[in-house]
Design goal:
single chain, 407 residues, alpha/beta, 2 domains, 5-stranded antiparallel beta sheet, 40% helix
Length: 407
Amino acid sequence: MSKTNSKMAIKKVVLAYSGGLDTSIILKWLQDEYDCEVVTFTADIGQGEEVEPARAKAKAAGVKEIYIDDLREEYARDFVFPMFRANAIYEGEYLLGTSIARPLIAKRQIEIANETGADAVSHGATGKGNDQVRFELGYYALKPDVHVIAPWREWDLNSREKLMAYAEQHGIPVEQKRGKKSPYSMDANLLHISYEGGVLEDPWATAEDDMWRWTVSPEHAPDKATVIELTYAKGDIVAIDGRSMSAAKVMEHLNKVAGANGIGRADIVENRYVGMKSRGCYETPAGTVMLKGHRAIESITLDREVAHLKDELMPRYATLIYNGYWWSGERKMLQTAIDESQVTVNGKVRLKLYKGNVMVEGRESATDSLFDANIATFEDDEGAYNQQDAEGFIKLNALRLRIAAKK
């Protein structure tokens, strides 16, 4: 096939490569369609699967420059934790597990493109989803003139049958996994695992019990509760049960203990940025605990108006991340304000995990608590609060209501 002028200009492309069927096909397609050198980039962001096999597959496909990077700590520290300082949640339910991983992958792809002198970057996201937007907004924000190749928007391999035929034609190995093949499209990282497709395309259908991988069902969770203590410094968890941990280790630990207690399942119909509604199921054990704990420590360390303003800004912040605007000026501006609010968010939270529930048992801050028991008490406050002051406060606030009522 003859190349167009735009394709002739591409000499080297960095591909986000998992080693799975889709990206293996994309790798071969790029080599043939663009007649270019392909650099593969595989990221370990805590998906729980071996990433090293991707190296052998890339070598077998003739790739000379292969990048396999462990990004778990960077992902947790620089992306997930800053997002949780904002208590971000999209449309009231989604903890943004896929959304927040994309800007990191885009960042590293651009870094590799700069290191290797590549002309273009490529991804395996389809033309129907959010990920194409998230990846490409990241690419353009970090390298404005980069050329982006999105195969799903260019080729005619738009069905599983056509992909399999292409793989067979070009000798691309298709792994046959033992046991029942998952009918779902899945994506996993330290923050969550998502499921789409299959029976989930009917929003009335119940998700199959054997779909879930990280959490036991609440019905089968232990009959005895698990109590944990989270230590916070400037809004981030820095220790669990008194043991210091890095950001990634915090998430790995919470995924295990919360998943074992049936915590973190969600079944959501969300509004994609491209305009359609999509039903997905998610397991976010660590994130569910992190959100509950963070709101608990903020409840005693944040000024009322600061806390309320954060809650007003949060939906905008969450939408920016969902839609792929992590690198935008407005997200960075909001992050600066959010991080400033976290200077006093220090202390401990005690949580009970039981059969799918996360319950706050206690919270304390030796240095930054704004809770004053002498004022809040129902007992004698010894003059700390003059209850008669409330009368004038109420009358002043009722003035406009009284005037309106008289009219």
